[in-house]
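Here is the promised in-class demo. Please do not try to memorize the tokens; focus on the logic of going from shape to residues.
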């Protein structure tokens, strides 16, 4: 690196009047001439002299401030072992860096802790705002300048960050995204702490009322003592409804039950505390989550099914039972309205296969289980553990329902006598006969003298059995029932489609006329079911995601006894709402035991209650919390600037399309049309309007939040959201609505909606700050924006046209040429790898990550868009430098990009994610993208053949 230029303090001083001997003349001082003039000064001379003194004072103050700030930065660099220096000339820095950086930085690293602070007047284009000084310090601390950026840019850009951070004990990885999320949580906690705990007054403002609701949700969640005291009762109140609607689950098993449901012995005893979920099994779970997300965000290429698919078979001999169908319909409608999935699941989504993707249509999915994927239901230790958890839940609930049933069954002796006596004297002859019938009806709480029922000496009857009940401990009864419930759930999972088909919009789009679907699901009265949700439009068609499931689930329900279905319904309800119970409540502890194993947590690990409650806050009153987050950490100016950045990137991409060699004119024109239709959304939703407290109050007006009733708040919120969703059926989606609130660190592209969305939560450092120079805003946030934009034109987004419809809108030749280049990217990334715990390489699946890798290449569009701004604006901030950083604007652009991928990952987590995550590991998201980008090679002067500039044959270019 070039050395600092000589200090201006040592230059010749031609402006000083020196004597012949080199010493300054006594009369040379301008101050002396001013205050001790040899002649009287005129008025204008006095004025000019005063101005000169003032300017000298201001200049001295400015130089002092600059030197102080620069000195502090240098001292901070010294603390972290980073040297400094440079002459500020880009050309010299770039030409020397590749050949001399390693030696120079290593030498400085070992011999000095504070680089010489510059003296003299700073350059005009150095940004000295507090934000820039903080950013400069952050970048310096992130660097590892002992590494040549042309060898390993990720280590160069993030090595310092990695050295100064560690992975929290309860996480498998930690990175820049998590830092931002933790920062955002602190902002929300600060807001919550500032809200008064007392109830708002009668004349409180709308904002105060909203904040009180926000505070109440968090306070009732964080009060675990109250939650523990409430115990299981809130959940028991719900299970009573299911038992009343559908029937008891705690009954005697009938001899006629199909043996298919008595197979739990095959896995009992398979689990012990040493068991851990295998990486392969974890991979299947993450695969399901990824494919679910892919359907919404379009980050995977779905295979188009062959046209000659076998026709769906219509129904076999189903035994109609109107009374049972009515009970199943009522039970499912009641559960689904409370967010509890079971048997079949209905979702309301855009009609991507229709003429208008914004019309919200009804979709029918197969059941989803409590375990992460179908493969878990074939793992005997998991089934053993799951059965014990289900048995524990059912036992807890049965202890209540048994008492309830007994109270209902046992009739009061005096009341029965009064009933008999009321027969009147005319019927006294039949009195004894009626009493005998009552006794034989087994409805007395104790044996009737002379009957053939025998007591146990404790007032408990014996001999004859109460119809439908079993004379064995409740734990044994529930253990048997749990085995049947788990087996029933396993059969449901086996009947469903694999996720590759279920979430593939080509396979999953199978519209059925509603009356035809009714015939295919004879156990469910669809008209009655739909009327429960009071939709404003009755659907003419329902899209069935996997038609073969219809017959399979009907067949399974037909041969399953009622008490097993009742146990299944009760279990689904308990598993859904267990998280709203106190951590010491036994039902919650049963579920937590399962979660620990499935998530690989250490046994007995306590959940972070603050994180739990902040998640609930986002779920229940997320838009109110989002308003407060925006007020604290975002601004209208930041929103406008973020939208400008996105539009400029879209414009750069639009202008580039006609010049892409592999895309023919027809496809390029269609792509431009789609680019023009992209809707950018930045900061916060407008439905409800985050900036308007009245809009938020109206949105949550039907949500009642009571102090000390967290479970009731969760239930009420779920009911509200379900009803709101169903009201949208058959109507066009509100384009001002979002999938998320304002604070999550997230961004997404929605193919059916044609929109790219960026919450305020991600527009935070190190991704974005309005106060940063433009090259840093474009390098970090611009890269995120370009990534989401490119998804609209990757191997998945290319399947949706400009209206969000599932269509093939590229020509065949363009598709073929695209695939060739996409495969180049896939082959390239398949050479990349992570290390497992033994230090062995585990390679990336380039086909799995292809869509995301292509989207990452959108960085080129962000760079072009930033370059374009330099030609269209005169703003000084466009070329401002950061103090203490001797990098060019182009170099800072790429440093900003790489910094957002800073991350530490445990080996087991890295292996698990590389097998399932459609995103490449962060290391390769940074280096893989930059290796293919010539602008990066030029910025850092990376010669051909270096690590970051491989031979052209090993590089790939798409967009």
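The designed amino acids, position by position:
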């Amino acid at each position: 690196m070039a050395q600092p230029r000589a200090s201006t303090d040592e230059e010749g001083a031609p402006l000083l009047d020196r004597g012949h001997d080199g010493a300054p003349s006594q009369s040379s001082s301008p101050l002396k001439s001013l205050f001790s003039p040899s002649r009287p000064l005129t008025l204008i001379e006095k004025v000019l002299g005063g101005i000169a003194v003032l300017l000298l004072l201001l200049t001295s103050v400015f130089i002092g401030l600059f030197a102080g700030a620069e000195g502090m930065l240098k001292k901070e660099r010294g603390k972290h072992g980073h040297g400094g220096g440079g002459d500020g000339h880009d050309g010299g820095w770039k030409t020397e860096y590749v050949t001399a950086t390693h030696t120079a930085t290593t030498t400085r690293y070992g011999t000095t802790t504070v680089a010489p602070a510059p003296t003299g007047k700073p350059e005009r284009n150095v940004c000295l705002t507090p934000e820039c000084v903080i950013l400069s310090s952050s970048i310096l601390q992130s660097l590892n300048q002992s590494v040549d950026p042309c060898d390993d840019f990720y280590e160069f850009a993030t090595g310092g960050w990695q050295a100064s951070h560690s992975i929290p004990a309860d996480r498998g990885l930690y990175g820049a995204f998590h830092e931002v999320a933790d920062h955002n949580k602190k902002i929300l906690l600060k807001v919550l702490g500032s809200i008064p705990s007392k109830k708002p007054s009668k004349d409180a403002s709308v904002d105060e009322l909203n904040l009180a609701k926000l505070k109440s949700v968090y306070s009732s969640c964080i009060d675990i003592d109250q939650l523990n005291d409430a115990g299981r009762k809130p959940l028991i109140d719900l299970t009573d409804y299911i038992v009343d609607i559908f029937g008891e689950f705690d009954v005697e098993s009938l001899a006629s039950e199909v043996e298919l449901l008595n197979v739990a012995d095959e896995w009992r005893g398979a689990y012990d505390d040493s068991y851990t979920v295998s990486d392969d099994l974890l991979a299947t779970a993450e695969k399901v989550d990824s494919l679910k997300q892919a359907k919404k965000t379009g980050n995977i290429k779905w295979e188009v099914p062959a046209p000659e698919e076998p026709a769906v078979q219509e129904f076999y001999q189903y035994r109609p039972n109107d009374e049972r169908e009515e009970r199943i319909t009522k039970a499912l409608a009641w559960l689904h309205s409370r967010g509890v999935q079971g048997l079949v699941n209905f979702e309301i989504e855009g009609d991507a296969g229709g003429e208008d993707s914004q019309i919200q249509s009804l979709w029918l999915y197969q059941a989803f289980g409590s375990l992460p994927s179908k493969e878990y239901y074939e793992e005997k230790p998991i089934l053993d553990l799951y059965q014990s958890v289900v048995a524990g839940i059912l036992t807890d609930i049965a202890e209540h329902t048994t008492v309830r049933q007994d109270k209902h069954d046992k009739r009061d002796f005096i009341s029965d006598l009064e009933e008999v006596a009321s027969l009147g004297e005319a019927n006294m002859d039949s009195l004894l006969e009626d009493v005998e019938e009552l006794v034989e009806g087994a409805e007395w709480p104790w044996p009737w003298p002379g009957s053939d029922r025998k007591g146990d000496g404790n007032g408990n009857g014996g001999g004859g059995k109460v119809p439908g009940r079993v004379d064995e401990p409740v734990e044994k009864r529930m253990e048997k029932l749990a085995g049947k419930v788990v087996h029933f759930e396993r059969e449901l999972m086996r009947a469903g489609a694999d996720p590759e088909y279920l979430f593939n919009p080509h396979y999953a789009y199978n519209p059925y006329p509603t009356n035809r679907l009714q015939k295919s699901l004879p156990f469910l009265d669809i008209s009655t079911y739909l009327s429960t949700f009071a939709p404003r439009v009755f659907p003419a068609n329902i899209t069935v995601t996997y038609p073969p499931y219809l017959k399979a689930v009907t067949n399974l329900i037909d041969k399953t006894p009622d008490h097993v279905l009742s146990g299944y319904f009760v279990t689904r309800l308990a598993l859904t709402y267990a998280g709203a119970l106190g951590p010491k409540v036994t039902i919650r502890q049963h579920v937590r035991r399962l979660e620990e194993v499935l998530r690989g947590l250490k046994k007995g690990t306590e959940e972070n209650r603050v994180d739990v409650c902040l998640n609930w806050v986002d779920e229940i009153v997320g838009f109110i919390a989002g308003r407060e987050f925006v007020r604290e950490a975002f601004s209208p100016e930041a929103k406008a600037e973020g939208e400008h950045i996105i539009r400029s990137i879209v414009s750069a991409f639009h202008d580039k399309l006609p010049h892409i060699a592999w895309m023919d004119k027809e496809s390029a024109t269609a792509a431009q049309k789609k680019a023009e239709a992209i809707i950018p959304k930045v900061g916060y939703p407008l439905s409800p309007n985050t900036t308007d407290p009245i809009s938020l109050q109206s949105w949550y007006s039907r949500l009642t939040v009571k102090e000390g009733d967290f479970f009731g708040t969760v239930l009420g919120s779920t009911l509200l959201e379900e009803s709101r969703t169903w009201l949208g059926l058959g109507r066009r989606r509100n384009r001002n609505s979002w999938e998320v609130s304002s604070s999550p660190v997230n961004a997404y592209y929605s193919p059916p909606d044609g929109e790219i969305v960026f919450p305020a939560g991600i527009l935070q450092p190190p991704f974005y700050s309005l106060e940063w120079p433009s090259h840093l805003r474009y390098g970090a946030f611009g890269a995120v924006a370009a990534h989401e934009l490119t998804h609209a034109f990757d191997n998945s987004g290319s399947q949706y046209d400009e209206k969000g419809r599932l269509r093939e809108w590229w020509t065949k030749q363009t598709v073929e040429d695209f695939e060739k280049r996409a495969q180049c990217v896939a082959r390239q990334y398949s050479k990349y790898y992570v290390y497992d715990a033994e230090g062995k390489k585990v390679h990336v699946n380039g086909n799995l990550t292809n869509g995301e890798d292509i989207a990452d290449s959108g960085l080129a569009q962000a760079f072009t868009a930033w370059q374009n701004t330099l030609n269209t604006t005169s703003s000084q901030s466009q070329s401002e430098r950061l103090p203490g950083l001797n990098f060019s604007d182009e170099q800072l652009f790429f440093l900003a990009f790489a910094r957002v991928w800073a991350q530490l990952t445990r080996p087991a987590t890295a292996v698990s994610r590389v097998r399932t995550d459609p995103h490449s590991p962060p290391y390769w998201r940074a280096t893989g993208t930059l290796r293919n980008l010539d602008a990066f090679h030029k910025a850092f002067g990376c010669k051909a053949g270096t690590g970051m500039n491989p031979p052209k044959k090993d590089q790939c270019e798409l967009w």
